[in-house]
Specification:
CATH superfamily of the largest domain: RNA polymerase sigma factor, region 2, helix turn helix motif
Strand content: under 5%
Order of helices and strands: HHHHHHHHHHHH
Number of strands: 0
Number of helices: 12
Distance between the termini: 91 Å
Radius of gyration: 35 Å
CATH topology of the largest domain: Rna Polymerase Sigma Factor, Chain: A
Number of domains: 3
Oligomer: single chain
């Protein structure tokens, strides 16, 4: 038995018999290159290699968890079909967003491989006729298989268009969105009665603070008073507005008596 196999068996015994999670982590790290190698075989199908490695790791972890140390089988032999099976299951369960006949799926996969090979041989992209000849099928079959390949991953209606600047906005969010000026108009209508009870200086200070965005110290310099005085005036003005707005509904319902 090779030293690495003995080491694997020791780590497996530590994990299964003693619940040593560190041994389990070491096994996963040691077999990560195997997972990456097997995942690379399927990376031409349109999935990112790192995503396939993650899927393959699930198969590796299942193999480690289910491994029987007493069976006399190497972990590599047991883990490989588990890793490949998990990757294939991923493609079967999540790959095709729209149901496509298995024959066209298989032809699409074969064409992807042939495209890579012919591109290297011809030093350019192959034509439909060249792909059909290499695959031993009709050109119509090639076109249909390539078209069904678009069903592998559908595009969300919420996906950005990727065009001009600002196109990262969800298209659905641009439909029927509220006009900002409507909200401003509503705010002005609500605040109007309260603003009427303020004097000219209070209105000016609130305008400088909340419309022009000046700080209290900047307002103090413009108005010619202390910053503390500005703070007191802002607080008093807001209280006056709040009190005035609060009595409006009561007056409308008859001196505070609720209708009904």
């Amino acid at each position: 038995m090779r030293a690495t196999d003995k080491n694997d068996k020791e780590l497996l015994r530590r994990y299964h018999q003693r619940g040593d999670l560190e041994a389990r982590e070491r096994l996963i790290e040691q077999y990560l290159p195997l997972v990456r190698s097997l995942a690379r075989r399927y990376s031409y199908r349109g999935e990112l290699l790192e995503d396939l490695v993650q899927v393959g790791c699930i198969g590796l972890i299942k193999a480690i968890d289910r491994f029987d140390v007493e069976r006399g089988v190497e972990l590599t032999t047991y883990a490989t079909p588990n890793i490949i099976g998990e990757i294939k299951r991923h493609f079967r369960d999540k790959g095709w967003s729209v149901r496509v006949p298995r024959g066209l799926q298989e032809l699409n996969v074969r064409l992807s491989r042939l495209m890579e090979e012919l591109t290297v041989q011809l030093e350019r992209s192959p034509t439909i006729a060249e792909l059909a000849k290499a695959a031993g099928v009709e050109e119509e079959d090639v076109l249909e298989a390539l078209e069904t390949g678009q069903a592998y991953a559908t595009l969300s209606l919420s996906a950005p268009s990727g065009g001009e600047e600002g196109d990262d906005l969800d298209p659905l969010e641009s439909l029927g969105q509220l006009e900002h000026e409507y909200e401003v108009s509503e705010d002005r209508a609500v605040l109007a009665p309260g603003l009427k009870v303020l004097d000219d200086r209070e209105r000016r200070i609130l305008h400088l603070r909340f419309f022009d965005g000046l700080t209290q110290s900047q307002i103090a310099q413009q108005v010619g008073i202390s910053q503390m005085h500005v703070s007191r005036l802002i607080r008093r003005a807001l209280e006056k507005i709040r009190d005035e707005i609060a009595v409006e509904p009561e007056e409308a319902t008859g001196n505070g008596v609720s209708p009904g």
